[in-house]
Amino acid sequence: MLIPTLKGIKEVTDKVGEVCTIKQSYTVTAAAEKMKEHKIGSLVVLDNDGGLAGILTERDMLNKVLASGNRPSELLVREVMTTNTIYCDFDAKISEAEELMYKNNIRHLPVVKDGKPISMISSRDVIAYWLRHNEAMRDAAEQLTMISTHLKSLNFDDVVDLAVNEIPKDFKAEQTVFCLNSTKTGSSTLYRNGCPLSEGELLDEKRFDKLSDTPEIFKDCGQTCKEAGCSGPRLVIPLEIRNQCSTDDDKQVSDKGYLCMCGFGQRFLEKSELYLYKASLVQEVLNINLTNAKLYQNYQQARRDSEIDPLTGVGTRRVLKKALEAECERSSRYNRSFCLGIIDVDNFKRINDSIGHPAGDATLRQIAYLMRENIRKTDVIITRYGGDEFVLLMPETKLDGGKILMERLRKCVKSISIHGLKSLSISCGLAEWDNEVDDSPKSILNRADSALYAAKEKGKDRVSCNRPMIHTV
User: Fold this and answer.
1) What DSSP line would sit under 187-210, residue for residue?
2) Do 448 and 403 meet the contact criterion of CB atoms below 8 Å apart?
3) What is the pLDDT of residues 137-181, one digit of tens each?
4) Rounded to an integer, what distance in angstroms lies between the CA atom of residue 182 and that of residue 186?
5) What is the model's pTM?
6) Residues in the chain with pLDDT < 50?
């Protein structure tokens, strides 16, 4: 048969002239918003002349954000995108485009005409084209399209729910088991729908290794399954979640598992090749989406961890920076006041040197606990600023009110009892927002720090205030 060129590209994709692009000078946040708006997983990146500069995928963004530790708004597309992009010319044959994807192990291929990107085709587009010429495979393509449409969420539980409850409907399976094992922690994730086997039987090591290895059609479910009431045959789709941040091939796979379905009836045996083909497509889609969802889950957890101090349980400097910037903006806009207090443990180095670092850690935990217990206003933000320093951000608070709070905390600290420590005290520096002199997050922190220094100079164990300037006309 004749193999058409991409001039007939509308037969391969409906994205001609509608390719989603972004300039390399834009932020990753802007790119993520555009992907979300258009419900796509990649963008064509343009240079300043409108030519092809690279490709940006969801995986690129997740990997670079996780690896750098920066926020998406701090990274530019040019820092994250894949350069040296593989592309095909508008006059290429579909088979040539397919070969490029296969050789370079990619799923998206820009189509370029006169140096400008005019479309994007995916491996799914090419598969769909060939399947349209094969009536026996058309049903599989349509069902895969449905699965791909639903698998847009980066929520790991949503992807698992689809695998357990929706995909089996397309295969007309009566029983389903979804199982994943973490290669790092050894922990297991197990979900089932209609399967009567016990958890112990499903998590049996030999059984798991067999089912997560190679896709096969088992015409006989096996004695264990039969005794439990399962009806054969069964279809097993092995799954892998890959750790995209790792450069070591041996550590690439972070989770292994399988999706097992059975209870198909006689129709399955009659069309086993079609079912296996559908299973291979589902395997690719699930692996990609499970990997992306897991990476996003890890990224979200890393963000949460970066905002909680692991020793004391209060916020970190990252939390303070965001909260202080927001409070300064709010107070400037509405001409409101707030206070910032810095607490420093007196003679903390002596505590560590004399009775040990565990006692020093216990001291910090006790102080953090007392602050949380004695501050009843839920909008007061407590953060650990340094080794033995804490910062309190007190919205809608004037200097006198802030001093009352700090004095109460200072007196409470004296009640802390640490084995081997005779007495404990803190020094506090307090400053009030002064919008009249173009105050800023940095300046109010500096003024509170100056007040803390003054408290130390005056003998420690006290609260010192840096009062706003008196303005004269």
Assistant:
1) -EEEEEEB--S-HHHHT-HHHHHH
2) no
3) 566 666 666 666 666 667 888 888 888 888 888 888 888 999 998
4) 5
5) 0.48
6) 1-2, 133, 246-247, 471-473
Q: Which CATH class is domain 134-305?
A: alpha beta
Contact (Cβ atoms closer than 8 angstroms) between residue 46 and residue 117: yes
Q: Which CATH architecture has domain 6-128?
A: Roll (3.10)
Nearest by Cα to 204 from 260, 279, 254, 262:
260
Work out the burial of residue 18: count CB atoms within 10 Å of its CB; fewer than 13 is exposed, 13-18 middle, 19 or more buried: exposed
Q: Where are the domains of the chain?
A: 6-128, 134-305, 317-466
Q: What is the 3-state secondary structure (H, E, C) of 390-405?
A: EEEEEECCCHHHHHHH
Q: Coil, strand or helix: which one is 244?
A: coil
Look up residue 172 and give its two tokens: 């007309």
Q: Could you identify the residue written with the tokens 């499970």? A: 290
Q: What is the 3-state secondary structure (H, E, C) of 341-393?
A: EEEEECCHHHHHHHHCHHHHHHHHHHHHHHHHHHCCCCCCEEEECCCCEEEEE
Kindly list the distances between the CA atom of residue 367 and the CA atoms of 162, 373, 428, 463, in Å, as whole numbers in the listed order: 47, 10, 13, 16
User: How far apart, in Å, are the Cα atoms of 97 and each of 13, 40, 86?
Assistant: 13, 20, 10
Output phi, psi for 184, to 5 deg.
-90, -50
Task: Output the CATH code of domain 317-466.
Answer: 3.30.70.270
Give CA angle at 109 (104, 111), nearest 5°. Answer: 135
Confidence (pLDDT) at 373: 87
For the record, the structure tokens of 134 come out as 């094969």
Rounded Cα–Cα distance for residues 171 and 196 (Å)? 19
**First vs last C-alpha separation in the chain:** 90
The CB density around residue 440, as the number of other CB atoms within 10 Å, is 15
- Using a 10 angstrom Cβ sphere, with 0-12 exposed, 13-18 middle and 19 or more buried, the burial of residue 127 is middle
Q: Which two tokens stand for residue 463?
A: 């609260």
Calculated CA dihedral for residues 393, 397, 402, 408, nearest 10 degrees: -90
CA-wise closest residue to 254 among 244, 243, 265: 243
Omega of the bond prior to 72 within 30 degrees of 0, cis?
no
Helix, strand, or coil (residue 77) = helix
